[in-house]
Amino acid sequence: MDRLPTELSLSQVDRIVRERLARLDISPGEEFLALVRGALEPLQGSIATARSELRSLVAMATAAEELAVLRSINERLVGVASDLFLATGSTPMVQEICTAAREAIVERVLELARRELYFAGSYCEAPLSLFAVGSAGRREELLFSDQDYLFLHGSGEVISVQMGEEPGDYFASLGSVFVNKLEAVGISRCSGGIMPVNEAWRGSVQQWESRLSHMLRLERSDWEKSIVNLIALMDVRFICGDRDLGLGFGKSVRSRVRENPQAIRHMARVVSSMRLSKGFLRRFVVEADGLHRGEFNIKVMAWMPLVMCVRLLAVHVGIEETSTPARIDRLRDAGRLTDQMASELADAYHVITGHRLLQQNRLRKRIIDDACYINPHELPGPERERLRKAIGSIDDLQNMIRSEFSMATSADRFINRSR
């Protein structure tokens, strides 16, 4: 991710060190390098500690027999990820550790849910694949996460004490148990309903094919719901279960959407007209009154428009990466973004996500009660300007999409703000 900025940063560090050494005698030069090592060693130590903790958390999750143990693992993960971010300022490191550990937790919860049904007298031979969308689908989980999962299952015999139970009945029960257990370990329910407890987010291969066909027809009665669901499915990624069954599902979904110009155009209309915290003379748009007076929702008015615009362009071009930074890289490689715009968008992503992590850490410490809101005028001047520039880059991206698809309309009301 962010290959160009990383290379430039390493080059800059090397140049600064060499320029400094060029003006020093041997002893002062050695002292200077010792100071450099002293600055780097704590960072290396923090990364090594986080890596060791991640291995431990994954191993513990894999072997856990009780939900209470999995909940404690999730809580410990939040502490480890928070410490790592405060030490390094790295959003990719936090996302990597949170995504990897939570996948281990989720996979174990699914195993425990199937076991519970088995001992209750219900078992299905049909293969099952678990997929994630949202932040989990993009490998961009932060300190706190909600459920964004779906079931894809095959066909097979159901062995159950309930006579006449069909595979669909079994997976409905499994979805309910799975969602309840995830909630018990500290992964809250999705406010948008993207959970296999809901019929719309579980099904056989044939059911999903039929469901996608219905969404892509964009029928007048429910086209808004279809667009929102299609947008969510653009991040679908295999998590665990039957790999043969799940292989190619995400690629197939994105391909079908890409081949439907009407769907792409509707998505472009939605993402390019989401409101930003950017007003006259580049002033931040903030709440005028209420509990969040002087603040704005950084998730809804900065982070979501960026993620969703990048996602739209990536799917339109045929990029299979699901993470936002990787999509930006691939869009640059494909010539759809200039080097400058790609660099600015990558920086915008890390600036905005960094502020989200800082706010989540403040929520964890009970300093604030809502991690989505931020007061830009409480930030130090340089940080405030970086955030202003980040939002300006998203505005440029939205303008590019509007120009490419020849549209301009407002579509905020279609988007569920939880994802």
UniProtKB/TrEMBL annotation:
Record-linked Gene3D superfamilies: Beta Polymerase, domain 2
Q: Residue ranges of the Protein-PII uridylyltransferase N-terminal domain?
A: 80-217
* A Pfam family the protein falls into: DUF294_C
Q: Does the keyword Kinase apply?
A: no
Any one GO MF annotation of this record:
[protein-PII] uridylyltransferase activity
Q: Which InterPro entries match?
A: DUF294_put_nucleoTrafse_sb-bd, GlnD_Uridyltrans_N, NT_sf
What are the alphabetically sorted keywords of the record?
Transferase
Q: Which residues form the DUF294 domain?
A: 262-405
| Protein's recorded name | Nucleotidyltransferase DUF294, putative
